[in-house]
Amino acid sequence: MDQDFKEILFAEEEIQKRVRELGQQISRDYGSEGDLVLICILRGAVVFLADLARSIDRQVTFDFMDVSSYGAGTESSGVVRIIKDLEENIEGQHVLIVEDIIDTGQTLKYVVDVLQTRKPASVKIVTLLDKPERRVTKQVKIDYNGFEIPDEFVVGYGLDYAQKYRNLPFIAVLKPEAYS
Ligand code: PRP
């Protein structure tokens, strides 16, 4: 499998350290007041959610949403649909959306717009990775960001290529030969 990677971008220890820092920052910012729901956007953010949640020192609940861009391929088209909606009502709750990566920003813009109509107390975003070069919308504000990365195809720690590599504990750049 190692031959599929151009380079290791973030080693396991580096990711764990950064996730702990994000958890501490989130714990400080939210304090203990109110209800905080972590909304994990399936499927890539599952690994990040599991580690992040255990670094947050206050009560939280989990909910899950699966969204998909119309059209195949590695690019999101901007037209998003809900495959699986939340189980719980978020009215009056503090919502923290947990993402693995923000690329064009179109998925998150859609999710935030949908969630805002449900009258939460607040909506914030935490993402492990941000690819700012690829952004097409200025309307997504990232509140907590693990790492800014260049425009390369990355896998591991939840991120996939054709559903593979999600279980790697590190994040690597895939060689173009591995996906062409
Ligand atoms: C990825 C990622 C975001 C979205 C970001 O999900 O988890 O949800 O793409 O892209 P955007 O900023 O260009 O909208 P993906 O569709 O690959 O699904 P997955 O999490 O199940 O792998």
Q: How is the topology of this model organized?
A:
Layout (H helix, E strand, L loop, with lengths): L4 E6 L1 H19 L5 E7 L3 H8 L7 E9 L10 E5 L9 E9 L3 H11 L5 E9 L13 E5 L5 E2 L15 E4 L1 H4 L1
Parallel strand pairs: 2-3, 2-5, 5-6, 6-7
Antiparallel strand pairs: 1-9, 3-4, 8-9
This protein binds 1-O-pyrophosphono-5-O-phosphono-alpha-D-ribofuranose.
Question: Can you walk through the features of this model?
Answer:
The protein is an alpha/beta fold and 180 residues long. It has a single domain, classed as Rossmann fold (3-Layer(aba) Sandwich), CATH 3.40.50.2020. The chain is 23% helix and 31% strand. It is built from four helices and nine strands; from the N terminus they run βαβαβββαββββα. The protein has helices at residues 12-30, 46-53, 106-116, 176-179; strands at 5-10, 36-42, 61-69, 80-84, 94-102, 122-130, 144-148, 154-155, 171-174. The strands form two sheets. The chain has a six-stranded mixed beta sheet, with helices on both faces. Strands 1-9-8 form a three-stranded antiparallel beta sheet. Helix 1 crosses helix 2. The radius of gyration is 16 Å and the shape is globular. The model has no long low-confidence stretch (mean pLDDT 94). The structure holds 1-O-pyrophosphono-5-O-phosphono-alpha-D-ribofuranose (PRP). Residues 41-44, 76, 99-108, 160 line the site of 1-O-pyrophosphono-5-O-phosphono-alpha-D-ribofuranose (PRP). 1-O-pyrophosphono-5-O-phosphono-alpha-D-ribofuranose (PRP) is lined by residues 41-44, 76, 99-108, 160.
